[in-house]
Specification:
Elements: H1 2-27, E1 45-46, H2 47-61, E2 66-73, E3 85-86, E4 88-95, E5 100-107, E6 118-126, H3 146-155, H4 161-167, E7 173-178, E8 187-192, E9 202-206, E10 212-216
Antiparallel strand pairs: 1-3, 2-4, 2-7, 4-5, 5-6, 7-8, 8-9, 9-10
């Protein structure tokens, strides 16, 4: 009889302990750990990357599309990044078969005006062939990226870029891609300033070979 009572007490004790544990577990708020979404990392891109992305879209517009010119863009909300890199770029492609030109942009963010994140095509315009100093060229001619072009400009003593940069610290770097009759290959024009018109110093680097071409003042 005593043994049975002792067993009943033990069973009740175990049941009570189990109930207490279950109650404690149920009272503990279930913490659903929601991973905080990391802010998107915005990385400015080089000109070679940007022109290739735009060219992919331009080819669907015109299979014979060639590059006429390209320029980096400065945005108020995003830093340019390392010299030679930019958050946005704008290029113009031309088609001899269509007798048309078309501008494209590539941006890492949505921007003011008609600037959209990613690659975006602008309206078509008439084009009757070469006019002005710029000549169209094949995309395959762009073999050197802009950060490498900037590095060459800074390291080449005859370019005087390092001296100019030292005397004019903090100047924004603008990059153009163009082909003129003066040089056989398209060139990256590294401009110290917001634009060619407001700058008094720029360096041309061959976009195909990476060689220093000349300094323009």
């Amino acid at each position: 009889m005593g043994t049975q009572v002792h067993m009943r007490k033990s069973t009740i004790f175990l049941a009570s302990a189990l109930f207490a544990i279950l109650t404690a577990c149920s009272d503990t708020p279930t913490s659903t750990t929601t991973a905080k979404k990391e802010p998107e990392k915005l990385e400015p891109v080089g000109g070679q990357t940007a022109i290739f992305k735009m060219y992919q879209m331009a080819r669907s517009w015109a299979p014979d599309a060639q590059v006429l010119k390209m320029q980096s863009m400065h945005l108020t909300d995003v830093k340019d990044g390392a010299p030679g890199m930019a958050p946005a770029w704008q290029a113009v492609f031309v088609s001899a078969a269509k007798n048309q030109s078309r501008s494209y942009t590539y941006s890492i963010v949505e921007g003011e005006g008609n600037l959209h994140k990613g690659t975006f095509a602008g309206p078509e315009e008439g084009w009757s062939g070469k006019s002005g100093q710029n000549s169209p060229f094949l995309m395959a001619a762009v073999k050197v990226d802009t950060d490498a072009a900037y590095k060459t400009a800074m390291e080449k003593p005859t370019s005087h870029a390092a001296d100019y940069d030292k005397k004019n610290p903090g100047k924004p770097i603008t990059v153009l891609l163009e082909k003129t009759a003066k040089h056989s290959d398209p060139a990256w024009r590294i401009v110290w300033g917001e634009s060619v018109g407001t700058s008094n110093f720029s360096v041309l680097i061959d976009a195909s070979t990476g060689e220093y071409l000349e300094t323009l003042r």
